[in-house]
Amino acid sequence: MVSGLESLDPVTLALIVAAGFGAGWIDAVVGGGGLLQLPALLAVPGITPVQALATNKLGSVFGTTTSAVTYARRVRPDLRTALPMAGVALAGAFGGAAVATVLPASVFKPIILAAIVAVALFTAFRPQLGQYTQLRLRGRMHLAAACGLGAVIGFYDGLIGPGTGSFLVIGLVSGIGYAFLEASAKAKIVNMATNLGALILFAVFAPQGTLLWGLGLALGAANMCGGYVGARMAVARGNGFIRWVFLGVVAVLAVRLGVDVWTEGLG
Length: 267
What we know:
TSUP; 0% strand; transmembrane helix; cell membrane
């Protein structure tokens, strides 16, 4: 079992930090950095899955916080929607984690895979989607839809996890009508809340040694750098750039979930 930074060789540590930077960049642009960061942690000799999950959340919360602050300063997303959505998502993440203890995530993966493939195709064949903000609902109905999305995606984050930020962007663009840039800005605030909720759960309730603080803080520093660079690049290059990165990350997420569904079906 890995106990901290001192048990890692320099090459492994360098690869983990590089993965952390890449994950921070991906998370800042469209979400889905966990698709890179979590497998990198799981590849560390001696690390347990629970240690990898907990340490991944510690690193990610630094990156999502940095990118959320960067977006807030440059894009100025409407916090009247983002903050209630984040609060509901945090509660949803706790609910998902509770369900995960009694119901395997494999039950939900085929449904999620079908949904993400459908939305990816819909986005790919609608070039104008997400170029401009065209809200489908107003007032209380808009807030209710945003909070409902936050609850569902928060639940997913607690239950399964990978691609949470991407699912938030999917919902905000195709479901509510935001442009990609505005959706990414709001998604970072909500994703920061779900990461923080999971981190508190691991820090307070998990057995000692589950959270690898040294490795997690090193990962967090790399995430912060990647998140800052990614958020600034997304703001500078705009909706078209975010759309293409989004499609690439969603394709990887679909393959990842497809492999999981296939292998679990064979098992």
